[in-house]
Specification:
It is a single chain. By secondary structure, this protein is an alpha+beta fold. The protein has 3 domains: 45 residues, no CATH class; 84 residues, no CATH class; 79 residues, no CATH class. The chain contains 9 helices and 8 strands. Strands 1-3-2 form a 3-stranded antiparallel beta sheet, covered by helices on one side. Strands 6-7-8 form a 3-stranded antiparallel beta sheet. Strand 4 and strand 5 form a beta hairpin. The chain is globular.
């Protein structure tokens, strides 16, 4: 049988569906509403091929996700100090190796190189990009920067409860997450909220906000909490 909410919370199910596969047949995993499948009013994590399979296997991690995991473990190849010592010409070459849209203006690339050197960010690992004409620091950068302080003591994000959704004016169709970041020596966690409004969704499935609004809301909550903490 599939994995039920009593054994794994919804947020973890969503994350595992992106990073793991079925141990029995190697198929991808999916999160489904259990009521229509005979498992009651709860979410389930199931094999995408056969619902009877109930064991998940090793992560199927993309290169970009692997880079994110490395930052959380403190295993990145270059730290902020090394990146800030890099001259802009060398950093520009690093920018050009990243997975940027082919039509990005050279001026935008140069801007990213300048920002990357100034703040010790690595565009090759997706820590910095251009969004609506301005430099945008991604969640990968915030993970690594927090780790580098030596004060990062853990982070946990989850979907908001029904009461929390009411308190933060989330309407049907909105996706709301709550994140806690823990810092060494500080008793109370730093809390961040991330919302993807229903009105933001509905476009191309090529955009993460439409293909995986839960992960987008989760990242927004993580970014807010990390900004508060560090």
């Amino acid at each position: 049988m599939p994995i039920l909410e009593e054994d794994m919370d919804y947020g973890t199910m969503v994350r595992r569906s992106k990073t793991h596969k079925c141990a029995a047949c190697g198929a991808g995993l999916g999160v489904a509403w259990g009521q229509s499948l005979g498992y009651g009013a709860q979410y389930i994590l199931r094999c995408g091929r056969k619902i009877a399979h109930d064991v998940i296997n090793e992560p199927r991690v993309s290169a970009r996700d692997r880079a994110m995991l490395n930052t959380l473990r403190g295993e990145t190849g270059m730290d902020s100090t090394a990146l800030m010592k890099m001259d802009e010409a060398t950093m520009l070459a690093r920018v050009n190796k990243a997975q940027w849209p082919q039509d990005m203006e050279q001026g935008d690339r140069a801007m990213l190189a300048t920002v990357a050197v100034s703040y010790g960010l690595d565009p090759l690992l997706g820590e910095l990009l251009v969004y609506r004409g301005a430099p945008f620091i991604t969640i990968n950068a915030r993970y690594r920067k927090a780790q580098e302080t030596g004060q990062f003591d853990g982070m946990e994000a989850r979907p908001a409860t029904t009461e929390e959704r009411k308190q933060r004016d989330a309407v049907d169709g909105d996706v709301l997450y709550r994140c806690e970041v823990h810092k060494k020596g500080i008793k109370m966690p730093f809390v961040g909220w991330g919302k993807v409004r229903k009105t933001e969704q509905g476009g191309s499935q090529a955009l993460p906000i439409n293909s995986d609004p839960h992960r987008m809301a989760e990242k927004r909550s993580e970014a807010m909490a990390l900004r508060k903490a560090f």
